[in-house]
Amino acid sequence: MRLWVRLGSAAVLLALVALVLAVRGPLLDAVAAAAVAVACWEYAGLMRRVGVPPVGWLLYGLALFLLLRHADPSGWATLEWGLGGAVVLGAIGSLVPPRDTLQQGMARWAAAAGGALYLGLTLGALLIVVNLPSGAAQWTGYVPVSGGLPGAHAVGPAHAGQWLVAIALGSAMVGDTAALFVGSAIGRRPFFQSISPRKTVEGALGSLAGTVLTWALAAPPLTGIPVPHALVLGVVVAVVAMGGDLVESALKRAAGVKDSSELIPGHGGLLDRLDSLLLIGPVIYAYVSVTGRL
After folding, report:
1. In angstroms, rounded to a whole number, what is the distance separating the alpha carbons of residues 241 and 168?
2. CA nearest 245: which of 170, 183, 179?
């Protein structure tokens, strides 16, 4: 029963993500901001259990700034400006916390700044990619042309950024589901047992296969990415997604809880659903930048 609740919740979330990606603009920014605010609330709750409650104004303020700085067309809201302000104001502010946490001032500042980077910077990178202007992502590969015959065709689709993000998120979800089924069916050897006892090597391999296959099948026809690039991205996204899952699991284990909250039926909290997606943004952004596609 729990599995069907989990799959149902995932389907609803996937439909919502597809809708806002298709619309983009203020709706996407608003949904992303709401998601980051909830994630920050869950993160703060976990860190309080650890014994290092983050500075609230710094956590929420910097996370939202890092998420939405792409929306400033003048470029004034640069990464350096936001991080510089966080360092100066946050460090000085850590000197005047409540009396009972005076000795934790710098730790609380670090928890807030780290949480903002973990949540705001990562998802903000996805917003930068999804809003790539028409023609910014240029790939040369085999894509369908008129008449349905495959042929070499240089493409720069107007919605390449949207498709890149959609495939990245969708492939991570496919990989997560594949890990669940493969691990439940044939999983025997533990995978990072000290962090997440239920994960297995077989499940991790299933996740890798599902993620790479999704990229190989979806990316070339939808974005024009050549198959070799798609395979590389599939492997990188699979590894990073599993790493993100383990990072959040380690945080929950340190806090002594099973879920980050009880917000989503069958999944726990929003962080429990976003864990494997959070670290994907910087990877996709870095790849299209380094390869000269941005």
Report:
1. 10
2. 179
Cβ–Cβ < 8 Å for 67, 52:
no
8 A C-beta contact, residue 279 and residue 247:
yes
Tens of pLDDT, residue by residue over 157-203, are 557 788 888 899 889 888 888 888 888 888 778 777 778 777 888 88
Partnered with residue 150 across adjacent β-strands are 144
The residue ranges of every structural domain in the chain are 1-24+135-294, 25-130
The CA angle 81-84-90, to the nearest 5 degrees, is 130
Instruction: Output the six-digit token pair for 128.
Output: 């930068």
Q: What is the DSSP string of 107-133?
A: HHHHHHHHHHIIIIIHHHHHHHHHTPP
Residue 186 one-letter amino acid: I
Q: Which run of H or E residues covers position 223? A: helix 201-223
At 204, is the secondary structure helix, strand, or coil?
helix
Q: Does residue 39 surpass a pLDDT of 90? A: yes
Contacts (Cβ under 8 Å, ≥6 apart) of 160? 132, 136, 137, 139, 223, 224
pTM given for the model = 0.83
What whole-number distance in Å separates Cα of residue 108 and Cα of residue 85?
16
**Phi, psi (degrees; rounded to nearest 5) at 98:** -55, 150
Place of tokens 């023609």: 135
